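Following up on my earlier thread - several people asked me to post the actual chain instead of describing it. Fair enough. Here it is, all 391 residues.
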Amino acid sequence: MHAAGGIFENWIFQITLILIASRVGAIAVERIKMSSVIGEIGVGIILGASVLGVLHPSEFLTRISAMGVIFMIFLVGLETKLDHILRVGPMALVVALAGVVVPFGLGYGFGALAGSGWKASLFFGAIMTATSVAITARVFMDLGMVRARVSQVILAAAVIDDVVGLIVLTLVLALTGASGRPILVDFGLILGFLVLVVPAFWWGILKAHAWLKKNMGERILLPFAFSALFLISFLAEEVGLAAIVGAFLIGMMLASTPDHMHFLTGVNPVYLLLAPAFFVVAGIQVNVGTMMNVLGFTLVFCLLAILGKLLGCAAGAMCMGANWRKSLLIGTGMVPRGEVGLIVALIGKQSKLLDDAGFTAAAVMTLLTTVVAPLILTPMAGAWTDEMKEE
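Reply from S.P.:
Thanks for posting it. Predicted structure:
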């Protein structure tokens, strides 16, 4: 038994187990037409204290998880063009803002009524604001409707939602004092980072990229990108932001270069290696026993999360002239929280602003919205093909 315990504590074996188990879990759920994220979180729950108890939260797993999320958000940034965000229509902007304001208010109100304290309540609100671009995009790709007007509004709104969500997370981290500094100092550092460092970094990245490619060739570009990724992620953390803010921004910077596809191709294998670790480690931290003890708390949180996005985004679309069918499609498409909600929840737990019950409720909500939205959206979009294909 001692030998077995030693094996499970070996970091090489832990990585091996996570990689194999995450792939098995992903394949299993993909066969029943569900997101691989669900399978990866599921195997984490099985391997964690809730079932088998062979893996437990540790400093090593936390670091591997952090690496996974940095590369995951970096990849999202690489697929996000600034000019695309600037060109999106007014409807996408209104839908995104409504999809942040309404859920944030519900999340904060939920935490306050549950007696969680204002700091935890702010984090509940931040978790509610998230939307997963990847999950909704996959549904429309499978239906062959990714270029339909309604799907374009949803995807554009989801991108804006991601950006606004990062800003909300930044403000929450500053207000809750997660960095350990006075709020005014946090705001000053954050403002300086966004107003001075980011534009200077953006200019420097483009200049350095052009010079390196001309004088040293393409072989240096990927190491250059990774170095820039970790540098700006480090700077973002130092000023009180989450590392994922820096990762998203550097991805957008490199997305504007002519070698955008070269970076995507190079980063993707690293993402495939490390991203599953984030979801498995998140699953390990879910305590099923805790969830059962606060089942009512968790179910109410999940219900508010679904209604907040669905009604908020649908109302935003209707205010911009969409009919009720389009509005429901848009609202449903914005429901999945996916990896983004889980990232915010994990940051809250690691900052000790969310307790086990709060994190478990957030993780279950992430799972539930990831499962429910595609199950509803697929038949809805299929039945309302005229609405989907209308230009």
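The chain has one domain: 76-274+293-389. That should answer part of your original question.
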